[in-house]
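Review box. Two proteins, two foldings.
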Amino acid sequence: ERQIVCKDVTAETLYDVLHDTSYRKKWDTNMIDTYDIGRLTVNADVGYYSWKCPSPLKNRDFVTMRSWLPLGNDYLIINYSVKHPQHPPKKDYVRAVSLLTGYLIQSNGANCSTLYYLTQVDPRGSLPKWVVNRVSQFVAPKAMRKIYKASLKYPEWKRKHNPTLKPWMFPEQNTLPCINVADLTVQRADSLENIDESGLSEEKTTQSDDEET
């Protein structure tokens, strides 16, 4: 579990940033693609996300079911991996598994909030130790800082980009196709191909993870 105090950011803004896939393309420099697949209920949907892994590893992707809940002034978002018949594993990606990922956003007054982040992910494949160390030491804390920085800029960005469109707050705005829950099954890690990348050594990358887009 990790946490970050976000001064000058309301809990609602953090919540919006974590939901807004259009804005995610602006700040998530590791992301390759993300899109919503369909909705299950007014507060649950299924989506796709793929991200760049450090070279020479294969890139990873997820299909996850996400649900969210406002709790007074606080907010909760959780997701876990599912199998969707129209979105099987892709040839050039390793399908990773989110066993459980959660964000808890706690309001600390009018203009301050705390973001708590908990994740259990199986990246699939036998990964080298340098990758595991890098992810635990750098990637999660860096992601938290990126979310915070993105949240500071979000209100101004949103004013210029469909300011009233927030389907996660207003379900009547949601135009996603409905998904039958019977079509989904929980994605078990042991049913996916296991890729052995444990022998790969770290390459020097020219692009910084902190590069602004």
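Next protein.
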Amino acid sequence: MAMYKTIRLLSMISVGCFAQSKDSEFTFLLPAGSSECFFQTAVKNGTMEVEYQVIAGADMDVDFTILSPEGIWLIYESRRSDGLHVVESTVEGDYQICFDNSFSRFSEKVVFFEIIIEGQGGDVGGDDEWAGLGEPDGSLLEYKLEDIKESMDSLYRRLERSRQMQTVLRAFEARDRNLLEDNLWRVSFWSCASMLVMLCVALTQVYTVRKLFDDKRRVCT
């Protein structure tokens, strides 16, 4: 029977920090025959994007589910190595994100996942920080405050997207490296086994041939 452990993701990093962040990633070890669940707080009419990858472990696959705050199954995937899902028009509450490895009795998995929350908390710096600044006059080279704010917000979104892509690429690299090292171990093991078998066969053939020409009978003259 699988051991279900529910982990409050907010306590993994710091209280309240994860829920306020628009972009968060996490890598954890999923033991064999167990399930891990995480909770992410969302606001009403927002968007939640979840991407996950199994970067180490035999077969590199897990079961993946997302449950709404009401307990409704929104997404279910069976024995997948990666996936990308977007939950539109979120409701206010805690969404449950679960990874299940109960079908594997011996192999543990290393799982990376990233959560991107949009429509939560406003733009960079918040509108309150801009509200205290008055409209610029003609001495500021006719730049308007809204134009500066829009440019900074656009730059921030582009930088965030670049950082997210780099994080995902690092996860792909880690998975490929683990797969390469595992394949290298298998190739090396079976190569050594094949060489040992060939050596035993060669020694056996030499011994057999020598026995054929080894005549110990005495000849009387």
